[in-house]
């Protein structure tokens, strides 16, 4: 299990990660969300031993990453994916990585296959597109088939098909009991991938919880031929009703089942009934605005 406790990182007298705490559970994909400069990469760099914390701790199975006997075999990381020698082929790059972490070189071709780079394996990385570099970075992280994956903005440079592919890959990893943390500043990219959201703004965690809970229902949108009668019935049942511009009624804070029950009791036939979800973008800006 990954545990981050009271993690703070200062550069000079600037605090870029401020008392951050969270735990990552096996079998879940956690989305680490925040705008540019919020502190996601810095948190991930501290978690993976790339930079020291100013205070606080980040541990993997109770030990700091750098103190694990073979950290690369436990945590697959995708951070700074562009840091690859441009003159090497993708295959050579992975072979060198495999040697370093003690993985048999037969695994290199498997990993290339897994990320869809088998055909480009012998080409120089300097000629790869951004998306291909991301895939190569992901292949490197997957080489030892590690239980934990920490990916910083993995969707960068991927097209919609690539994003879908990555979603399946990460969900599959979690379904096999793996632990996944992925960061993004684009919420739509991760909304359908993650089980849990960890939202960071200005170095602080502003929300941490299941996606369904954070995006919880805001109310119900309902339509009927007799709109005025429906509004009267709902107000009579003490619901707060607003008239939407499109002719629907918006019933704040009410579940569709409760709205349907009021309509049924009043003998009003409904033509449409649906929950209103708070948009992820709304939630995000609301939360991060509070933090800044
Ligand atoms: N080595 C460094 N020295 C000084 N400041 C740094 C350093 N690394 C990061 N920062 C600053 O720390 C803050 C957080 O940066 P970080 O890269 O962690 O944010 P992020 O949430 O990952 O953003 P992005 O989505 O843009 O990558 C930024 O203001 C950044 O300028």
TrEMBL record:
Keywords: ATP-binding, Nucleotide-binding, Transport. Transmembrane segments: none annotated. GO terms for molecular function: ATP binding; ATP hydrolysis activity. CDD domains: ABC_BcrA_bacitracin_resist (cd03268). The keyword Amino-acid biosynthesis does not apply. Residues 2-227 form the ABC transporter domain. Pfam families: ABC_tran. The keyword Ion transport does not apply. Belongs to the ABC transporter superfamily. This is ABC-2 type transport system ATP-binding protein. It comes from Petropleomorpha daqingensis.
